[in-house]
Amino acid sequence: MKTQRVSVILGLFACLPLASSAAQDIQTRFAKSLKDAQSLVNVEIEVLDTLWMPHGFDGNEAAFSRTFQYSYIAAGPKHRATCKLISGTKTNLAKLYVSAFDGKSYRGYDGDTRYMVRATHKLLGDRGQSQLNPLIAPFMFLTKQSDECRQCMLLFSDIVTGELTNGFVLPNGQSSAGSLAITFPGPPLLKQPTAWEIALHEAAESFSPQTIRRVLPGAGSEGVYKLLNYTNLGAYHFPTRIEWTSSSNVPPSPPSVLSTGIVTVISARIPDHIPDSLFTLESEEKSAATLWDLDQKKFAKSVHKNSDSTASLQPRPNIYDESSNGVKQIADALDIARKEHKHILLQFGANYCVPCHKLHELFQTNTNIAEELKKHYVIVMIDTNKGHNKDIDAKYGHPTRFGLPAIVVLDTDGKQLTTQDTGKLEEGDHHSPEKVMAFLNEWPPTK
Predict the structure, then answer these.
(1) Which H or E run contains 364?
(2) I want to staple 350 with a disulfide (CB 3.0 to 4.6 A). Which of 69, 227, 251, 385 is the partner?
């Protein structure tokens, strides 16, 4: 197979010289780079994505780090993406996730739990793909993430189809010391406006930002991305290294680093031909223990063990009411909690979420846990599918940022006592009864 290959080695790339006029219009450069990106009918790229969090996820933990290797191959709108864990400081990190879209249907497969999602459309968020794919990094400000779609992420296929760029106009840049700076608003997030600040080389033909800054007042943070070591794949000019920092941004307090990361391209190439079989996950679908049909909103396959220990297939019951009003649920629970002198345990989740079912089953089947919950807690199941009850999630500090299920404990006055990332309660592929019990024992009501 003949291919055009770009071999990427750390530290060996230098920015390629580009002859141009400093007065070249930014919109023209933007349009040119989009056209060059869209010319990549076939593309394959592999990257290493490393994250460091000096104070853990909630700011009071031990330092955390992890490295994923992402592989992405596409032919027009078709794609296959793989996320593989290389290293991490936590033992419960997902080790393998694969997704594929063949132009008509989507499959996403978790290799750890043998859980598959299938749909006739691409998902808003795709665990198989890096949110900092270098192929889309120059256009990251086109993200669809907003209060209307918190899970949305920008995908390379969005750039290829051109759906996001129709009618998009960049402001004129301000020239200073060989750079052009442009600033413009982004979509509202956490009920507050956002902003983008981009710095580009003044003398360049392509749209190749040096730095991109995203300001998120609602989250009290900002992200700064350095796009480095640009090279070419075909006609398209893109960075092969991204260094980024996320910092708190709550004036008048000084900023503090929340997390940092580096994304480095291992290799990139333009294959002559990609077989259609690559964009299906037939073997994974056959081996899946659980198969959630997103179109039908039900389990097409779910393995449970019956009394004689043989596997049987049956749909999981819906444990979350997808039509419920979270505000009313909590208000009703508060009435009961005050009368019975109990705390309220909010369990954020969704019916498609396998860990949510596992935790719920543990709550019901473990005698000690069930008795503790009955004695001291009123449980409220808060459905979060497709942004449902997003105002409740926001009210309690977005506990779903840790993933699903997530737990919040309230007292009888509705005061938030704690938020629990249930990933910390896991051991292997299940929740530890001992860890769950220890957590519940921390928050009993005082009479």
Answers:
(1) helix 354-365
(2) 385
Tens digits of per-residue pLDDT, 34-48? Answer: 999 999 989 999 999
Q: Are 152 and 143 in contact (CB under 8 A)?
A: yes
The pLDDT tens digits of the residues spanning 22-72 come to 335 899 999 999 999 999 989 999 999 999 999 876 666 788 899 999 999
Residue 12's CB is within 10 A of a number of other CB atoms, namely: 9
Confidence of residue 253 (pLDDT cuts 50, 70, 90): confident
Q: What is the pLDDT of residue 95?
A: 87
> 300 pLDDT band (50/70/90 cuts)?
confident
Contacts of 62-67 with CB under 8 Å at 24 or more apart are 62/89, 63/89, 64/89, 64/90, 65/89, 66/90, 66/93
E strands, 15-61, are 42-53
* Three-state SS at 13: coil
Distances (CA, A) of 292 to 315, 386, 387: 9, 15, 18
Q: Which residue ranges make up each domain of the chain?
A: 3-10+41-162+225-278, 326-442
| Residue of 418, 422, 414, 396 lying closest to 342 (CA atoms) | 414
The answer regarding whether domain 326-442 maps to CATH 3.40.50.720 reads no
The whole-angstrom separation of Cα 389 and Cα 403 is: 15
Q: Specify burial of residue 333 (Cβ count, 10 A radius: 0-12, 13-18, 19+).
A: buried
Pairing of β 96-101 and β 78-88 = antiparallel
Q: How many angstroms separate the CA atoms of 138 and 158, rounded?
A: 13
- pLDDT tens track for 86-120: 999 876 677 899 999 999 999 999 888 888 999 99
More confident site: 337 or 15: 337
In whole angstroms, give the CA distance from residue 192 to residue 217.
6
Contacts for 281 with CB less than 8 Å, ≥ 6 apart:
98, 100, 107, 109, 116
CB 108 within 8 A of CB 128: yes
d(CA 290, CA 362): 18
> Two tokens at 91?
């033992």
Rounded CA gap, 52 and 33, in Å? 31
Q: Tell me the one-letter amino acid at 386.
A: K
Q: Dmax of the chain from CA atoms?
A: 77
Q: What angle do CA 88, 226, 403 make, to 5 degrees?
A: 40
Helix axes 367-376, 354-365, angle to 10 degrees: 90
